[in-house]
Amino acid sequence: MGRIIIFTGKGGVGKTTTAAAHAVKAAKDGIKTLIVSTDMAHNLSDLFMKEIKEEPVEILNNLWALEIDSNYEMSKHYGSISEAFKKMLPIENEKDGEVMEDIVVFPGIEELFSLLKIKELYDQNIYDLIIVDCAPTGETLSLLKFPEIFSWYMEKLFPIGKVAIKVLRPITKVAFKLDMPDERALSDIEKLYVKLGKLQSLLKDREICSIRLVTIPEKMVVEETKRSYMYLNLYNFNVDGLYINRIIPEEINNRFFDQWKQIQRNYLDEINSVFSNIPIYKVKWYEVDINGVAGLERIIRDSLHDENIFKILKATVNEIFEKTEKGYRLNVYLPFTNKKDFDLFESGTDIIVKIGNFKRNIPIPNIIRKYSIASAKLNDDVLSIYFE
Ligand SMILES: Nc1ncnc2c1ncn2[C@@H]1O[C@H](COP(=O)(O)OP(=O)(O)O)[C@@H](O)[C@H]1O
Ligand SMILES: [Mg+2]
Fold first, then answer.
1. Is there a single domain that holds both residue 106 and residue 219?
2. How far is the CA of 285 from the centre of ligand 1 (A)?
3. What is the pTM of this model?
4. The domain spanning residue 278 has which CATH number?
5. How many domains is the chain built from?
6. Is 286 a pocket residue for ligand 1 (Cβ < 6 Å)?
7. What is d(CA 388, CA 301) in angstroms, rounded to the nearest whole number?
């Protein structure tokens, strides 16, 4: 069974560098590895000083690289879908048409196709390890939650089966001036829907996929890293490693850096305490930027000794349903949240946890549906919801 390790973090913190260092280490350890970039700002070509495109290019013995062109993926597989969405919306004039054009392309949908490509590559079963150099966290998060949101849309838009849509088509056209998607688009939409479900299971599979966060010891980045960790946990992904990059070496003796070193020490302390349950790797700030395999080997030598580094480093299950005296308890792991930050409600067969702009639907198992929520408590980063 192959492995997928996804590296993400804020822009410029060292995602590409860290991901590539792992890729080189894996290849040298004899693991057949593919490094894939889904970030639209493709940097693998620059880093490896080799032209890298949509087909895997051999970089070293055991190491291949590929940069996904999400626009290309999208048009290749799903051209008719956006057309279908467009047709469904009533367009009165040219100008509306242009506005609709933007609306039917959901934000982040292009990037989503990059992840589908990763699933395709995984299914081909050619590589033992796929390392993903992902877009900055904000985008990654919207990508990772996208299958969930998209499924939700699909269920609302197409709650009825294909047959029903066929029957309904002439009626909707007359009554609402709405076109239903034609058969080809419909089957494309169905296929996409099924694929997204599978993609989500793959990325959440704790035996296969790890998410690793890259950060630097500075206030804004640390704050964003904590938020990302919380959201990724909310969506039940396995985050099992944190990389602190650009740490100023202690031996640097330059007054300009004295205060910086103190600032970094403070954030290092904070990071060490909040991420105490996952492995933390520290990478120093080198005197030059990192280029080519030789540069990456310095990082491997200095910071990536851990022989288990490609293994799944933590496998906590984030959602646990437990039987209680009066009913059931659902535990959701939510680090770094405050009681006042989240809302909780029931919707149909789902329970919805809302934190800021993020919303997570947790399907309620059949046996629990006859109970209702009695209370909820946040304790030690675990949200316990009681069904009675
Ligand atoms: N520890 C480090 N020491 C020196 N330069 C670094 C270090 N980490 C990253 N860099 C340099 O910083 C720049 C940004 O790193 P990169 O990995 O491309 O970030 P990201 O992919 O997160 O945008 C690159 O030029 C890289 O060579
Ligand atoms: Mg990058």
1. yes
2. 9
3. 0.81
4. 3.40.50.300
5. 2
6. yes
7. 55
